[in-house]
Design goal:
With 339 residues, this protein is α/β, with parallel strands linked by helices. It is built from 11 helices and 13 strands. The radius of gyration is 20 Å and the shape is globular.
Length: 339
């Protein structure tokens, strides 16, 4: 195994930009989700949380829908080469399973694990190296929400970083976006996905769903997946690392109406005593009774997934739904450009 890992860092994650984003989060009292994945400690805590509560890990039937989606998606590719672009790669396990299936079907596969967290990208890279060589893996740290030139960067990737890689003109690109839709405002992330999807390309994404026939009841039903000790421990790392104390307040998990007819689970930290912190020359003061929004997660239905994607020129070609009704995988193409 190589002792060095070559990871590209987009300017959206350069220290000055991250600092600006942090200050903005604290001023607006709305924390950018990326700050919950910043450190190795946070990454490891999130991975433990994901292992304990994600239906794709705890429900064999849910895990099976991913495998079925991988098999059926792989069958759609007729070219010899596929580049898997894992947006918000997380631990990379799903992308790695997909890459192996594509390789088993005789295709030459390359992979870009892309995430806002350097630690997460390295975890995904390590997973991918079980099936790919280092010369076929091109890790990239980037903030999907703020990288305004992402389309240009990825259209020339990985040649921009590795001119000798010579990606053939016939290489197909498959974009994955697993577990990420719930943590973005749809009107912010969906236009970005639409801009990335080129003619003939496919997007394979997943969404957390509200089970049952009644949307509101379904959202209420899955609240314990969020309001638990592991989630609390994970979210508190951000505040504690800033210098706050557990005794400064408490976490509150509530269900709110979000945008576009969607409901979401939101976590607030409500201060029970006044607290101020200093970061460099900047001071941030929080009053007793004030709250910070730490986290939110939208819950969809298959119909809401389709409607929101359609509004941004994206068409669901096929879907795979977990029998529990808690998760779905969707194969998407550009509605305007087609295959």
């Amino acid at each position: 195994m190589d002792s060095l890992a070559h990871v590209a860092i987009h300017c959206s994650q350069f220290p000055d930009r991250v600092r600006q984003d942090l200050f903005s989060s604290l001023r607006t009292r709305r924390i950018n989700h990326k700050f919950h994945y910043d450190s190795i400690k946070q990454t490891q805590q999130w991975l433990a949380l994901h292992q304990a509560y994600s239906p794709s890990r705890t429900d064999a039937d849910c895990a099976a829908i991913y495998d079925r989606s991988f098999v059926e998606t792989a069958q759609r590719f007729t070219g010899d080469e596929v580049h898997v672009l894992g947006l918000g790669c997380g631990g990379g396990q799903k992308d790695t399973r997909l890459a192996k299936l594509l390789m088993d079907s005789g295709k030459k596969v390359s992979y870009t694990p892309l995430d806002v967290s350097t630690a997460m990208v390295l975890v995904a890279r390590q997973a991918a190296l079980q099936v790919l060589g280092t010369d076929r893996c091109f890790p990239l740290v980037c903030d999907l929400a703020t990288a305004s030139d992402l389309s240009v960067v990825l259209d020339n990737w990985p040649q921009a970083l590795h001119p000798s890689s010579n990606r053939p003109a016939r290489t197909s690109r498959l974009i994955t976006f697993f577990g990420m839709m719930p943590n973005f405002e749809p009107e912010e992330i969906l236009p970005r996905l639409a801009a990335l999807l080129q003619p003939g390309e496919h997007l394979l994404c997943s969404a957390n769903l509200a089970p049952g026939s009644d949307y509101a009841t379904g959202v209420q039903r899955i609240l314990p997946l969020y309001d638990n000790a592991l989630t609390r421990r994970w979210l508190m790392i951000f505040l504690l690392d800033l210098g706050m104390e557990i005794t400064d307040g408490k976490l509150e998990f509530v269900i709110e109406e979000g945008s576009r007819g969607l409901m979401r689970i939101v976590t607030h930290f409500r201060f029970e005593s006044a607290r101020s912190i200093r970061i460099g020359e900047e001071k941030f003061a929080f009053k007793k009774g004030e709250s910070i929004r730490l986290f939110f997660s939208y819950r969809y239905t298959p119909e809401l997934v389709r409607a929101n994607l359609n509004d941004h020129g994206l068409e669901v070609m096929h879907q795979w739904l977990a029998p529990s009704g808690e998760e779905g995988v969707f194969l998407v193409q550009s509605a305007a450009r087609g295959l």
